[in-house]
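SECTION: protein entry
WANTED: fold as C-alpha cells:
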Amino acid sequence: MIYIPSYIKINLTLRVFVPREDGYHEIATLFHKLGPVEWLGVKKFNDPAQKDVINSHNIVISGTNIINRVIDFLREKGIKLPPMECDIWKILPIGSGIGAGSGNAAAMVEWLSTVHDIDLDPSELASIGADIPFFLSKSKTALATGVGERLKLLDQLTGIYALLAIPDKSISTAEAYRKLDEDRKKGNINIVPVSHAIYEALNIYGNLERRKKIGLLPNDFISILRKESDFYDKFFDLCNTFKSSLAWSVSGSGSSAFCLFTDKYEALKAQEVMSSKLVEISKIFVLE
C-alpha cells in the first residue's frame, strides 16, 4: 500500500456574493494551505472484476465518499483506472470549514496523475469540491474567485504558524449559507463589492508578508457563527493577548477558528492556553 499526504486549507479572507441561478454562491477568498494533516493509503487490485473499496478510519462518512466521486468522475472522462482500495485516515471532523475532504480528493488525483495519463483541467473538479483546484496547485497561498476554482497564485507566505481550533459543534456548509442568505434578506449583513473584496484580500496578503499585525480577518460567516456560540469571541480575545499573533478568524463557513503567529513556540504555548481555557475545543493543532 502506498501512503499519500493530504492537506487542508484556511480562508484568510472570505467574502460571499449573491447566489447564482444554480444555487451556488460566488466568492472572493484568500486560500492558505496547511499540513499535511491526514493520509490516504492506496493500492491497486490486479483483478479487473474487483470493485473499489473505500474505507474511512476514525470518522464515519455518510453517503458517497468524495474519493468515490473523484474516481467515478475520472472514469467518466475516459481515463482507465484499475479497481483500487483506499484507506482514508481521518483526523478532522466534517463541517470544520477547512476543506479536508477536498484535500483527500486532490491527494488521490495527484497520485493517480503520477501513474496514469490524466490530462485534466483542475477547474473541472470544482463540481466535486470547489477548493480541489487550489489543492492541486503548487502554491501555498492563492486568491480565489468564482466558486473558488478561479485562482491567482501568490508567493508563498512562509514563517507563519497557524493555531487551528475545532470546536465540539459543527455547522454544515449548506446550513451556514442558508443562515447567511436569511440574514441578508433581513438587512443584517451587507454584501461588499467584488472589487473591494479582491483589494481587501490582496492588501491583507501584503500585510501578512510584512508581518504587520491585523487582528480579526474578514469573513462573512463570523456574525452567523457568533450567534451560534460564544466560543468565537472567547477565542478571538485570547488570540489578541499573544505578542507574536498577527491575525485571527474563522475558516470557510465554520466551525474552525484559527490564529496566525510568527513565533512557533508562542503558537505552541497558545495551544496549551486555549486547551485549558476553552472547554469547547475538541481538536487543536499548530500547523505550517
